[in-house]
Structure formats: structure tokens, C-alpha cells
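WARN retry 2 of 3 for item q-0093 after timeout on previous attempt; input resubmitted unchanged.
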Amino acid sequence: MKRTIGNFENLIEIHGMRFLVLGLNVGQYLDLISKNFMSKPDYFYKTIAMANIIDWEGVFLFDEFESDENGEIVSLVPRYDEDDMPVYLDFCEDNIGELHDSILSKIGKEIYHTYSTLSKLEIEKYQAFARWMYYSSSDETIAKNDIKTFDCEQCIKDGHRSSRKCGLTELSVNMIKKKIEDEGEKIPEDEKDGALSEEDKKISLKYKLPQGRLRKSFEPVKEASEEDPDGIYRDFFMYSECPTSFIDAKTRSVAEKIYFAHKSRMPFFSGGMIDQDNRFVTICQIINSECNKIESERHKRDQQEAKKRK
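OK item q-0093 returned
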């Protein structure tokens, strides 16, 4: 089984059998949705698997298996030939239909939910990325000073971590603390206190900017406690976790390219949309939509402030 780079191929392993699959493209996704195949989950997932398995290895036939109450195979016994060797199935389009329905359904389910669509958490991460990029790239004094406190090492030094819903592992935190102590600095006692710091209260809840001195795009209009008392509220967006840890490396590496394309007014894809990976098109839509929303909000605020100054 040979894997190529650039086609966004994905590996799924089931009971030792390895399947190389592709996520749905936009055309496939729209075709399935328009035909209301989702009303028949088993058929829906089976159809996806049969269309998007592109190779496999170690796939064998079996006659005996055990399934759980949901019909999924939990264990199976390979079919053996006269030499007591498992009967393996070579990959070809005609042989895909020889796979057990339960195997096909499981593959199709993973293709759809993992490699073709985004979870609610993933959507929130890409929205958070766009918001944080705008906030962190601001030349406003309040934002520039605030961003510095979100550096992990500085955050621990200042005693903010326990009040910002840090998502770093304890190992990562301890390594940073050791580095700080090795440099001869002390870890503040506030680091162990979960109370919201005075600085975060000031910025995150109802921080009022002087009229006409700074743009009001960095002035929250509601208390963070209305949604989440421990949330990070910046620039009219609630982060369920500290943005530095919440926006992970994988999300950032994908989103940065899309964000750059948006800001540079360059197309992210070549050719038409229908053949593009549905997952990446969805990510582009989320980031572009969030960026347009932010720019619209700020333009509207600037217009309102200009009217007030007249």
C-alpha cells in the first residue's frame, strides 16, 4: 500500500486491517445530502466507504465474528485455506463490495465524521484562531500589552495561569516552571490560587476605554460571568480555554495558510470548488466568515465613533 503526499489520504485500521481512504469532496458531500441519505445511516456510511476507499492491506475474509448490541464487529475469526493460512483479499473496486457491511459502515462513519466534516470543538477553534489573530495583530496599546501576558512563561510568572483555564499538560507547565526557577526567578503564590486576577477582571469583564483615545473594538459590553465565569473574554469573543493552549499546533498550521490567503486576497484552491476536500472548504468558510464579521463589526464601530466626534 503506497501513500502519496498532497492528496490528504488517511489511514483507518480495523482489527489489524489497514484501509487508505479519502475524505469527501464538496461534490460528494452535496450529492449525499441532497439525496437525504443521512436518514438511512447504515446505507449512508456504507456508500461513503465504497466510494472513498482507495487501497488496503492485510484485509482478510472471515466467516465467524462476534458483534455488540449495535451490530458492530468486536472480534472475528479469519477464513483459512487448505494450508491453514488466512485468505487475504487483494484490493480492487470489485472487491470492496466483499467487505462485511459492519466494516464498511465503520469505515464510512470515520470518513464522514473525522475526515470530511468538523466537530463543534474544531469549529470553535478555527473561529478562535481568526479572532485571536485580529486581536494579537492590533497596534492598540491595550491589546499589545495584554497579548504579552498570554505568553506561557510570562503568564506563569504573573500568576494568571490558574484563572485562565490553561490547557497545557502538567508536564509542560512543570517544564516552564523549572525554566523560570533555573533563571533565578520565583513562581508567584497566586499561581496556585484559582481566583480571577484583578487585571483579568479589568480587561475581561467591563474594561472601559477612554472616549476617543483608543478604538472601542477592544471594549467588552457584557460580563464574562453571563456565559462562563472562568472564560477568557477578549474583543467580543468568549474563549472556553486560554487561546494560547486552545488553538493547538495542528489548527494553527492549517488556519495560518487560509488566513494569509484571505488577507492577501488570494484563492486558497485552484480550479473549481466541487472537487475540493469538503473539510478544507468548510475551514475556509469559517475563517473567511469570521474575518468578514470582525471587519464589519470594527467598521461599524469606527463609523459610530466618527459620528460621536462630530
